[in-house]
Amino acid sequence: MPVILDSRDLIKKIDKSGMLKLIENFDSQCIEADSISIGDIPARDYNCIVFAGMGGSAIAGDILKQMFEQHCSLPFIVHRNYGLPDYVNDRSLVFAVSYSGDTEETLSAFREAMKRNALVVSLSSGGQLEKLSNKYGVLYIKIPAGQPPRCSLGYIFFPLANLLRKLGYVKQVNVEKIAEIAKNCANVYGVESRENKAKEFARIMRGKIVVLYSGDILLPAATRWKTQMAENSKQMVAVNVFPEMNHNEIMAWNFPLNWISNSVVFFLRDTRDNERVKLRMDLTGKILKSKSTPVYEVESEGTQVVERIFSLILLGDWISFYLALLNGVDPTEIKEISYLKRELASSS
Fold it and tell me: Which domains does the chain have, with CATH numbers?
C-alpha cells in the first residue's frame, strides 16, 4: 500500500489547491523575481528603514534585516502592526509591503508614512496599496498575483533586496545560488525521495508540541518554520532565540509534565552563530535530553548569510507541507484567517 507522503495521487486528494507545485517551483520564482522592475529612489541620508508588513510578507523583511546587520549601521526595523513608530519622520524610508495589497495593517502604515512625509516604496500584486501608490505618486513595485502570500517569498524578497543594493546598503544576492538551493531541495526533499529529512521531521512532529530554537542569524528561518506550520500544517509551534531563552525559558522545561513529555525540540544552527551561543546550545541540549526530551539539530548550508537562511526556510516549507498531509489538512486552506478578514472588513 502506498504511503501518502510518497504518492502524488494520494497527495492530490488532500492538496486540492496545488501547494506542492508552488513549493517545487520556487527556484523559477526566484529567477523571475530577480528581473522585476524596481525603479529608482534617491540615496538620501535616511535615519532608518522600516519594513511594514505582516505574515508571509514580513518574513522577507526579517531576512533583509539580517543582511543589513551584516553590512550596514543604519537601523532596519520590521514593523508588524498598525501605524508606525514615533521616530519615523521625513528622513525615514518606509517599505509598505502586502502581497494582496489589502492588508489593513500595512495600509495603515502606508497612510501614516505619507502623513509624516517619509519616502515610501510599496510592493504588492495589486489591491488598495497599488491604488494608493498611484494616487500619491509613490514608487510602486508590482509582483505577480494568484497564489497564497506565503508562497510568494521570492517575489517579495528579491525586488527589495535589489533596490537596497542599488542604494548601497546590502551586497548583491546571488539569485542563481538561491535558485540552485531551491532546486536541490526539491530533489532531496521531494515526493519521489522516499527517505528524506523533510519527511522524517514531519513524522517526528506529528502529534507533538514542537519547539524551535535558534541564534539571531537564523531567527528568520525559525519564524518561517513557525508560520508555515501554522498556516500549512495547522499545528501549534513555539519559537525562541538564544541567548535569551537561557535567561528564563530554560526553567519552563519542568512543568506541566504532560507538555514536557509530549514535546520535541529542534535547534537551528549556523556556522556564524556567536561562539557563546554555540556553547549555550550544547549545554541546553544536554539539559533537555536529561529530561528525556528529544532534541534534533539542523545545520544551515551555504556561503552567504542569505543562502544559509534560505536553505532552512526551504526545508521548513517542505516539512510543513508533509506535516499538513499527515494531519489530513489541505495546506492551502486558511478558513480562520478568512473569517477574521471578513469580520474585520464588515466592522470597518
Answer: 4-16+197-327 (3.40.50.10490), 25-175 (3.40.50.10490)
